[in-house]
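Morning!

This is the sequence you dropped in the shared folder:
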Amino acid sequence: MNLKKKKYPLSLQSSYSHRPDLLILWEWEYDDDFVFYLGAAARRNKLAVRFFHADDLATFYHYCDDPEFVPQVIIDRASDVHAELCTSLQTLKTRGSRIVNDPARMAWCRDKATMHLELVSSGIDVPYGIIASRDDAVDAVFSRAAEKLGLPFVIKPSEGGGGEGVILDATSVQHISHALKSSPTGKLVLQKKVEPAIILGRRAWFRIFYIVDHVVPCWWDDLTHLYQPLQTEQLPEDMLNKMKTTVMHIAQTTRIDFFSTEIAIARDGTLQVVDFVNEMCDMRMRSRHHNGVPDGLVLHVADCLIQHSVSQRHP
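The structure's back. Tokens below.
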């Protein structure tokens, strides 16, 4: 199956409607499975659904010119790459469409420096961090980092995903200087390195998905990047509840509907939100990608998003 060549699942595409129940925008070729299962779940629930791959944006813009075109729910998997979509999505939002996720909120969440400050101010535990920019004296930044964070520490560009540009074992002025030169925004978050506890022989590091009020935690090894499903009996109930409460708190702070976050249980037993908000979740399936999301979770996420779309459908 190669939906990129098809541009959308043709067998699932509904006929044109001024007000489809669901519209899906997607860009990444590896989203093909996720988009397919979203479409399948939509059809099972008798939703009228439209798909637009990035190659079809001219058609999408043409539809948006029609003032009566108002999809009830839009799942946006493309505006992070095609920023020009944001204007049309804002227009549709003004007309009454619900967008998952709102592009303006995603842009705000994408800045790790901003998120660090927002989460700290809202009382969420994150590793001690220092925000640095190209305007700062690098030697002074390093001295402060060495004192406050210890060596080694972690360097993250303020924007970006998939680990791109991250230095996990920074120990020198040169590491900071190189990261600043490479950063598109000229901003960095320097972060205290978290060593997770070992639970059941595993590093206590988790990737947790938030899908419209549903919280689903997974084991996620920060070294191998491999997922394993988390069984509720594998963690103490109070720890699991605290983890879910933390994710709900992040959702209330960010006001986006679908994201993942990384939380570690540190060796001192505290929960640390290590990677704040991944607002465009990587939904590659484990059956096709060794470091992908467990297949059952991909299907569950698709079902949650479709049930949300069902709840928004007008009587």
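Headline: The longest strand covers residues 258-265.

More detail when I'm at my desk.
O.
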